[in-house]
């Protein structure tokens, strides 16, 4: 926990060979409050949406035994099966994935489904793809409203939806209390946004925050959005935490990193957590020095 904030760990930070009980227990032993499950574009993780009763029971048992909940879901499967695809079969699959993801979330008491902000990923973006994407979000919001489940858009690693400002347009179109934003501090920073201003704009709808390091986009370099060691990139974490404290954000933080079999996995996670905690303490100290109570 960071002060008044729960701290979560992204599932992909851990060895994928672990059982769910071992995965959740490991997260607990490393000091995390919850785990974010991934439903990505791989066949293996997509298959979770169609698990048998026995497979679902095993995850329920792992949650009970470990005492570690799955509070959020990273639903990046729509990168492969986007709402905006020109292929009607792919669009139909996008709706099916959303429907099943909502049911999965409800069963496992997942509070937030993080959406991927791509109208399309492996196709060219067009006016038609953007309109189909919006229609998919409209349908998803109606479903979320029926089930009282929060959908939150991630600020992404492509220009299409790379700022909270851009997501505000979708919030205005959707007008749903069940649609919010899930900013990624790394992605926000890498695109050269005024990150503190962006966080101010999103304050009314930030339901969780990804904590990740990135390398900035610049002429001749597309940026790097994954597997950048903490402290070696472009993110001013202490400034981000300071701004969020000023805005009285009380939601969870989620450390996003990826398992590397060539590294000491548990050491890397422990080091990342310490770095984040140090940056958070630095932010609180700066506020205290200014006479602003955290």
Automatic annotation (TrEMBL):
<dbReference type="GO" id="GO:0019852">
    <property type="term" value="P:L-ascorbic acid metabolic process"/>
</dbReference>
<dbReference type="GO" id="GO:0016861">
    <property type="term" value="F:intramolecular oxidoreductase activity, interconverting aldoses and ketoses"/>
</dbReference>
<protein>
    <recommendedName>
        <fullName>L-ribulose-5-phosphate 3-epimerase</fullName>
    </recommendedName>
</protein>
<dbReference type="InterPro" id="IPR036237">
    <property type="entry name" value="Xyl_isomerase-like_sf"/>
</dbReference>
<dbReference type="Pfam" id="PF01261">
    <property type="entry name" value="AP_endonuc_2"/>
</dbReference>
<dbReference type="InterPro" id="IPR013022">
    <property type="entry name" value="Xyl_isomerase-like_TIM-brl"/>
</dbReference>
<dbReference type="InterPro" id="IPR050417">
    <property type="entry name" value="Sugar_Epim/Isomerase"/>
</dbReference>
<keyword id="KW-0413">Isomerase</keyword>
<dbReference type="InterPro" id="IPR004560">
    <property type="entry name" value="L-Ru-5P_3-Epase"/>
</dbReference>
<dbReference type="GO" id="GO:0034015">
    <property type="term" value="F:L-ribulose-5-phosphate 3-epimerase activity"/>
</dbReference>
<feature type="domain" description="Xylose isomerase-like TIM barrel">
    <location>
        <begin position="26"/>
        <end position="277"/>
    </location>
</feature>
């Amino acid at each position: 926990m960071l002060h008044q904030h729960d701290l979560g760990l992204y599932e992909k930070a851990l060895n994928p060979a672990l059982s769910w009980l071992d995965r959740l227990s490991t997260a607990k032993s490393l000091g995390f409050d919850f785990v974010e499950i991934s439903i990505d574009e791989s066949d293996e993780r997509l298959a979770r949406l169609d698990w048998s009763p026995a497979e679902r029971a095993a995850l329920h048992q792992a949650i009970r035994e470990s005492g570690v909940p799955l509070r959020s879901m990273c639903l990046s499967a729509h990168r492969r099966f986007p709402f905006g695809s020109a292929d009607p079969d792919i669009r139909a699959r996008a709706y099916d994935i959303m429907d099943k993801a909502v049911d999965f979330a409800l069963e496992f008491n997942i509070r937030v489904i993080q959406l991927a902000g791509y109208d399309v990923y492996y196709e060219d973006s067009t006016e038609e793809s953007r309109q189909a994407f919006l229609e998919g979000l409209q349908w998803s919001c109606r479903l979320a409203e029926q089930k009282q489940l929060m959908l939150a858009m991630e600020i992404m690693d492509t220009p299409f939806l790379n700022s909270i400002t851009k997501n505000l347009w979708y919030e205005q179109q959707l007008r749903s209390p069940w649609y919010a934003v899930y900013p990624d501090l790394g992605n926000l920073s890498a695109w050269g946004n005024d990150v503190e201003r962006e966080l101010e704009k999103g304050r009314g709808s930030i339901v969780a925050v990804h904590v990740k390091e990135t390398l900035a986009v610049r002429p001749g370099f597309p940026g790097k959005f994954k597997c950048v060691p903490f402290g070696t990139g472009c993110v001013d974490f202490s400034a981000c935490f300071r701004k969020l404290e000023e805005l009285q954000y009380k939601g969870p933080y989620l450390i996003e990193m990826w398992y590397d079999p060539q590294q000491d996995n548990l050491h890397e996670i422990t080091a990342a957590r310490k770095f984040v905690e140090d940056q958070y303490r630095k932010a609180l100290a700066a506020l205290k020095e200014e006479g602003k109570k955290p």
